[in-house]
User: Fold this.
Amino acid sequence: MDEFNINILSWIGGREENQDSSGSRETKHGLLVVVCDGMGGTKGGSIASKLAVETILEEVANTNHANTAEILREAITKANSVVYHAGCTRQDLQGMGTTVVALLINENKATAAHVGDSRIYQVRGSKKIFRTFDHSMVFELVKRGTISEEQARLSAQSNVILRAIGTKPEVEIEINEEIHYLKGDRFLLCSDGIWGAVNEKEMLKLIKNEKSVERTVEHIMETIDTIGTGTGGKHDNLTAALIETNINSKIQPETGNRIKIIISILSILLFISICLNIWRFIFH
Amino acid sequence: MNKPIFTAEKVNLVSDKGERFTYYHSEQFYIGGGAMGEVYKGWYANNPEQKVAIKKVHARHAENKSIRERAKFEASLFIVHPNLIKMLGYCESDQTKGPVYIISELIRGETIDKFAKRIESARRVVPVSKMMCSILDALHCLHTRTICHRDVKPSNIMVDHMGNAKLMDLGIATADGISFGTLNQGFGTYPYAPPEQITGARDDVNHLSDIYSLGVTFYELLTGFNPFYSRIEIETVERQITMPLPYNKFIPRPLFKVLLKATAKKKSDRYQSAEDFKKAVIKANKGGGVNWLVIVLGILVIILLIFLVMIYINS
Assistant:
């Protein structure tokens, strides 16, 4: 789609296997981008994430639903079922699971869905507009105000997630249905191998649109990989998918009532002032 | 934890030290199970009278490199201490595939919480303190070897038939300089985990974390409940970070002060060694040594005052 530029990269980091999977597809409902971070067993993690990505891409492409939130909900529910059953039928895959972040973006709006601690950032310039909130133990503590986001990021338990695809027969999916965007906004979908390596300020700097989409993703990967190599070289797999918008979303936030009243009053005052000035100019 | 499906198969194992062990994969020999595997009662193949405990780490976990390393590390801790479980070695048919078996001495007895519950609450202080001091000895022994247990809790302390307390399950212990990579699971058990084990980086967990966990364990054994436990896990975690140890009438004040210090949220506020913690427990339980001194001094001051008043009246 000409409305959106996209680039995805996935690197192994310092691990023996890349358990992250990612994919994108142009569908009749919009551009779909998915990133999954698998976990468990020797092969389980990579199989779980791959199965989840394939299922979601396929389900969204073939559904006739019109509601983007429902489309993503159905597709991720199906992916959960596929991964869960695969884990039940093969002993060596038992307990496997994966996180998921999915973005379905069209000319009207973007819809984001996630389970676990992979993230979606929406960035305008270098300002964060939207970010998913991890389903992790430490981020629950952040929500409660017990610890800061930075403490959560640096915690040894930061990878203890509370929700995952494929570990239980049912899964709770968090969906942000209506995300508005402006031309030049960037959406980054990434696994924790990316966001866990740098603080949020640095993360936003990496995403901002100084370079092309292709070059930005390469730069993100190179930066994170270099940090990982410099801190022992056993760093996590890293996956980043960047989407840049070339249009404004058709659906834009409505201006609030209070702002409308203030603008109306100011307009009336301006109008009266202009009239009075004209009257003075003519009659004096 | 569901019981496994027993195959009744006879399993013969050869340890890394060349010793042979046997057990039956049957309910009769099943001791218990955990997240990683199952524990069976087994014996030396050449001496069926000499019993051992055989912990089988399931292949699906053991094939994870870091878990395999952890299991082997646990089995390799050949430390002889009366209050530490004795490890006898590990067995595997392949260095990277299949299950790992960790062989240790078999302790005949019960976990310390069951032992404590059989004693009336008001009478627990002396026997429980004695056992906690033994476990502090065991921790001191580990800590001097730069090993941190990281999962001290009542279910990891056994009381044998001789009334001797033994610390076991070093499954998540670490030694300085040994890293086991990243696992998608929490370390330790939240109702006993110190704040740094939850919010800190991996390096933040050290021997002072064991001191905290033992402080909570001590409290639980005396009172019969865990002070930080909530049915909602995240609340348990939050309490570990923010809530100080609540006072309980079954703990004498001097001993409570000791536990309060052991479970301080900041590591620097805790006892800095297991030995210091033990000394404080002994001192607190001596009971009244300091108070008697205060009473005697008070009486002397009163006598002196009366004496001075009488001199003043007579003059």
About this structure: The interface with chain A takes residues 59-60, 63-65, 179, 181-187, 197-202, 204-205, 233-234, 237-238, 241-242 of chain B (CB under 8 Å). Chain B has ten helices and twelve strands. Residues 289-314 of chain B form the longest helix (26 residues).
